Amino acid sequence: RPCARSLCEAVHLKSPGRIHGLRADTLGVILTLSNAAANARVLVLDDTGGLVTGAVAERLGGHGLVCSTYAARASSSDLVRFFNFSALQLNCVTSASLQYLQAAKIKSQTCEDTKGETRLEEESKPDKSTKEEAKEENPMDKNAIEDQKDSQKCRVGGGGVAPSGRVRQTDDNELREIMKQGGFSGLIIAAPLVDASSALTTLLPLLAPSASFVVYSPWLAPLTVAMDSLCSTKQAVGMQLLEPWFRVHQVLPSRTHPMMSMHGTGGYIFVGTMVVSSSTDSPNSCIAKKIRVE
Questions:
Q1: CA atoms of 161 and 92, how far apart (whole Å)
Q2: Contact 204, 189 (CB under 8 A)
Q3: Which of 57, 85, 114, 124 could staple 90 via S-S, CB 3.0–4.6 A?
Q4: CB atoms within 10 A of CB 70
């Protein structure tokens, strides 16, 4: 059965430019640093033909969600079908535009604000009889049960699996659940042709506090610019620039030596942890304020 390592090595040998020179060892480091595991909610900006998206879905094992986002038009995800995922695993792979994700974030934020205002109004009002409270709570309980059923359907596969192994669109209920939990738990940017600093500025508000982000690029300069911009805005901590080192050795009797004909570098990785600053008016700052009040 094909796996992320075998597919990455095959594509790297045939056409490394298709995946921007991403090696199998670098892909493993990206998956480890992004905390891609079962029940994770990973946001991916993928320009490697779906290789990184499929590798994250393989790590999830059918439990969790990986959302491949795009700005103008959907990027190619042809390599996802070569993983031969089951229906459960393929149902975890979704796709959504960046404008759609931002609209869902704003909508969930406004809903939280209106709920907080109504809660304060109800607390300021005088107490009502128990019968009236029971009548008011019943329809809300029904709506909560219906929302729970819809979310369970989406987890089991209610969102539907796209035909012929294609990536399906993200369901509204799935996005509602993610935004209720604060956002995505991880971010992977594997699009070297996109400006790293502007991509991080746009995608970081969609993450939950303390979420990990990983940016891959075959060049060092864009990552240093992104690191400097995040240091100035204080949106992340624990930032590091890494260069994976990998060397293949020939092991034969009296002829063991490193292989000479191989690439010198496997690209560069920028990793960090997203934090929420109380001084900024970011979309996630309201979460920190609520925790502080409680």
A1: 9
A2: no
A3: 85
A4: 17
Question: Are 58 and 83 spatial neighbours (Cβ–Cβ below 8 Å)?
Answer: yes
Q: Per-residue pLDDT tens for 74-90?
A: 777 889 999 999 999 99
Instruction: Answer yes or no: pTM beyond 0.85.
Output: no
The pair of structure tokens assigned to 254 is 């009296």
Say if residues 232 and 205 touch (Cβ distance below 8 Å): no
- Look at the block and give the residue holding tokens 């920190």: 288
- The four Cα atoms 181, 95, 56, 201 give a dihedral, to 10 degrees, of -60
> What pLDDT digit, counting tens, does each position of 145-200 carry?
454 444 444 443 334 444 445 788 888 888 888 888 889 999 999 999 999 999 99
Maximum alpha-carbon separation in the chain: 90
| Phi, then psi, of 254 in degrees rounded to 5 | 60, 15
DSSP string of the chain?
A: ---HHHHHHHHHHH-GGGGTT--HHHHHHHHHHTT--TTEEEEEEE-STTHHHHHHHHHHTTSEEEEEEESSSPPP-GGGGGG---HHHHTTEEEEEHHHHHHHHHHHHHHHHHHHHHHHHHHHSPP--HHHHHHHHHHHHHHHHHHHHHHHHHHHTTT-PPGGGPPEEPPHHHHHHHHHTTSEEEEEEE-TTS-HHHHHHHHGGGEEEEEEEEEEES-SHHHHHHHHHHHHHT-EEEEEEE------EE--TT--EE-SSS-S---EEEEEEE---TTS--TTHHHHHHHHH-
> Which residues pair with residue 94 across a beta bridge?
67, 168
